From TrEMBL:
This protein's record includes keyword DNA-binding: yes
The protein's name: ComEA family DNA-binding protein
Annotated Helix-hairpin-helix DNA-binding motif class domain residues: 149-168, 179-198
Lineage top rank: taxon: Bacteria
Amino acid sequence: MMHSVEKENAMNRKRKVFLVIIFCMGVFCGCGSRNNVYLEKIQTETSEVPQTEEKDCQEEMGSCMVYVCGAVENPGVYELPENSRVYEAVAMAGGMTEDAGMEAVNQAEFVTDGQMLRIPTMEEVAAAQEESESNVDDGLLDINRASVADFMTLPGIGQSKAEALFQYREAHGRFSSIEEIMNVDGIKEGVFNKIKDSIKV
């Protein structure tokens, strides 16, 4: 009988040891699983940060579409970053051709979204200068007869403003007074005050 009791006690000890081993393995596996989940979460958050920042930067930059034509190698519509200048738009179009009237173009001027940027040829510049002389016989520029090149001879008027003046006149007809040019986009009172003594209708 004593032998039977000792045998049963030995079996109970083995069961306890076995249960302790199983418990320890469960705790170890559980900790490992939680650690893996934590590491995966950190990796996911880390990988998402650069993508979000990159997306925000792209949204902040913005862009504008410009139609570059005339004396350039590859006329067409080009997308440029905001605050780009004329020389950058011309470069996108392959640069100016050999007969381009380069000196008539302000290449440092900013381009705007939806702008048509036309580079004149040297022949066109010469013809415009001749016409300009006939339009200013009394020293004043007739804004109802002026070409884009004529408008660009006025102080503070670059190519984009000159084109805006020309296109406004084409769309609305003759200017009824010199003050009417302030209805043109980009021509405000400050610009008008610079040129009012140099123009007529």
